[in-house]
Amino acid sequence: MLSYLNNYFGPHGIFLNYAGHDFIDNSTYYNLNSNEESNEFDSLIQINHNSNSINFYLVNDFGSLAGRAEDILSNNLVIANDFAFLSSSPHELGHCFNLWHTHQGRNCSQGGCPEAIDGSNCQTCGDYVCDTPADPCLSNHIDNCQYTGGGGFNPLTDNIMSYSKKECRTEFTSGQVNRMRAAILNSIILQPTISDLCRITGPFEICNTETYIVGNSNNLPVIWSVSPNLKILPIPAPTNTSVTVAPKYPSSNGIGYIQAQTSSQPLQKEVWVGSPNSSS
Q1: In sequence order, what DSSP letters do the residues of 7-26 get, joined into one string?
Q2: β 205-206/266-273 pair status
Q3: What gap in Å lies between CA 43 and CA 51, rounded to an integer?
Q4: Contact (Cβ atoms closer than 8 angstroms) between residue 90 and residue 8
Q5: Which end of the chain has the lower number of beta carbons within 10 A, N or C?
Q6: Contact indicator for 55, 47 with CB cutoff of 8 Å
Q7: 3-state class (DSSP) for residue 232
Q8: What whole-number distance in Å separates Cα of residue 21 and Cα of residue 82?
Q9: How many whole angstroms separate alpha carbon 214 and alpha carbon 129?
Q10: Residues 108-129, buried b or exposed e (16+ Cβ, 10 A)?
Q11: Residue 247, preceding bond cis, omega within 30 degrees?
């Protein structure tokens, strides 16, 4: 599941780590009622809830729904088993990360105001993201992942936050990525979910030799690599949590990087190699 989700979010610098799992031994939640008047969803997301994690609940069946996020910006979502490895999972997680439907405000989505076809109100209406064109509610106008509804619309039929067919939805836009990253970094709900496992720590400037550390509490295998203007020192030898690097040449001067490849994700830290730039 983590690998599947990271295929969608990882290319945008958003990685999910395994924080553990549990089994809820209660047949009440085996098949969940999708009626919004039912309190089954609200009751389920209170069980084994962790404030420092994204709580991802899997149920056998969810009625008329493939899945549901607790709210636009939250850390709880529920997915029916049959939809777990379809675009429904990144779609609902996108809601947790503060993304709205691309058709937000139209007659298939309550609340808000519809985005104008020319995008003139893209910051205040629709999904509040300007690089997702106005969406007429794609589920009614899709043929083989192509929009055939006309009306002046030119929606993104491959967008994960649309109501396009599940097999069509594969992409986030850069605007959506920026909105998700801002929510993760700044919201009270999502800030506690940020893990030290997702960071390489160490100085920004490398004039001589410096040591860098990656959060890896499980001591998982890590493959270290660096940019061409850096070298990894054999002494002390790299470990699964640290590496010591130095400029490759005495004349090295410019941006470089240190990368830690774990079993689930690549982590990268940009650095300045050589003497600090006098113009900066």
Answers
A1: HHHGGGT-------------
A2: parallel
A3: 16
A4: yes
A5: C
A6: no
A7: strand
A8: 19
A9: 33
A10: ebeebebbeeeeebbeebbbbb
A11: no
For the segment 37-56, what is each residue's pLDDT rounded down to a tens digit? 789 999 999 999 999 999 99
CA distance 176 to 124: 15
- What six digits make up the tokens of 109? 């989505």
**Look-up: residue for tokens 């794609």?**
138
Chain centroid to Cα 141, Å, comes to 28
Residue 276 DSSP label = P
pLDDT tens for each residue of 127-160 = 999 999 999 999 888 989 999 999 999 999 999 9
The model's pTM: 0.75
Give the whole-angstrom CA distance, residue 246 versus residue 235: 12
Could you identify the residue written with the tokens 């160490």? 202
d(CA 199, CA 245): 17
- On whether the CB atoms of residues 248 and 182 are closer than 8 A, the answer is no
Residue with tokens 């995008």: 119
Indicate the helix (H) or strand (E) that contains 44. Answer: helix 40-44
Residue with tokens 């990253």, as numbered in its chain: 181
HSE, CB side, 13 Å, CA atoms: give it for residue 78. 24
Backbone torsion region of residue 50, taken as left when φ is above 0, otherwise alpha when ψ lies between -120 and 50, otherwise beta? beta
E strand intervals along the chain = 55-59, 67-69, 76-80, 142-143, 146-147, 200-201, 205-206, 210-214, 223-226, 230-232, 242-247, 254-261, 266-273
